[in-house]
Specification:
It contains three helices and eight strands, in the order E-E-H-E-E-E-E-E-E-H-H. The protein is mainly beta. The strands form two sheets. Strands 2-1-8-4-3 form a five-stranded mixed β-sheet, with no helix packed on it. The relative contact order is 0.26.
Length: 128
Amino acid sequence: MKIVYSDKKSGRSAQAEVSADISAMLMGKRIGDTIEGELVGLSGYKLKITGGSESSGFPMYKSVQGYLKTAILRDSVKKGSKAVRRKTVVGGVVSNDTAQINAVIVEYGAKSPDEIFPKGKAESNESA
């Protein structure tokens, strides 16, 4: 399972692959729950789960209870006519099928943002 975490202040994000043991600790967490940053190597940080996706790529949806895949009805407006469309989503609870969790930093620790977010290839060329 991957956890993608981001910082709203700087607009930067990074991802961490977590082990099966840590994945098991995250089972049952919901969108909106806060988790310890130590799970991804960010001691002193707290992360809020904002979404995610399951192994087939379907997004997590907060208002769907549980962790089952389902089709929801969504309104869409196209060229003046209102249509109702189905969209397949999974529930907002982390399960065995969850492949990625998206999170945002809500509490900061001792590490600086430069240590947390590794410089990408494009960023490193700009500073040279």
